[in-house]
Amino acid sequence: MVAVVEQETVPVTGTGAGARIDIRNVSHDFGDAGQRLAVLDGVNLSVAPGEFVALLGPSGCGKSTLLRLVAGLDAPTSGQILQDGTPITEPDPSRIVVFQDPTLYPWRRVRDNVALGLQARGMARRERHRVDDALRRVGLESFERAFPHQLSGGMAQRVALARALVNDPRLLVLDEPLGKLDSLTRLAMQSELVDLWRRARFSALLVTHDVEEALFLAQRVIVFSQRPARIQAELHVDLPYPRHRGDPRLTALRHEALRHLGLDASW
Hints:
Elements: E1 21-32, E2 35-47, E3 52-56, H1 63-71, E4 78-83, E5 86-87, E6 95-98, H2 110-114, H3 116-120, H4 128-137, H5 153-165, E7 171-175, H6 183-200, E8 203-207, H7 211-217, E9 220-224, E10 231-236, H8 248-260
Parallel strand pairs: 3-8, 3-9, 6-7, 7-8
Antiparallel strand pairs: 1-2, 1-4, 4-5, 9-10
């Protein structure tokens, strides 16, 4: 996939296709009345329309739980999450989750996997062009007849992204979507994900354990504490796209992120 080469900075506000998300004093816990496990503690965060925000934090601190709440898969114990001013109470096609595992149906060809959401809504026949467009955007139009077992890991994750994009989401919720890829494929997919976001203008909320990935992709990086997760730092990555991994400003931000995570002693 050809990367966009302009050097402008994508604005964090505006009137693009992306949704505005407001997380207001959200706390969440698991368990019953006899034994509760606090996972999130008073989280306040907003995502502007068209903004790319990454969440960093220790493993198990509650980042993925927050994504599930934003997606409407679960309801917070307390607090409120809104999309464009309306409370999120259930899943909605405007918010699409992409997980670490592509979760493709092995008996369905690439095209049918991508069209799944449209088929479920009875729109597949009249919206065939949207499947064509989604496949083209991820560079897989030549593989529409392939089965998942015939694809590489990176190609399978591209199918998962196309399946999300075909619904024209206003928010893409990304839960470690590149976590199972080999290092070289992961680097290539990071650039492709940025390219997709810049062209489609959706809002993006990413969970990752990779500090460099967060800084390469996002406009803001939110650093969480140990569980129960609280926001302990917010890093603004005020760098133009496409970004260069050797940029000394990224190196400085990486050191700052690692300091907040307590991992900077060896850097």
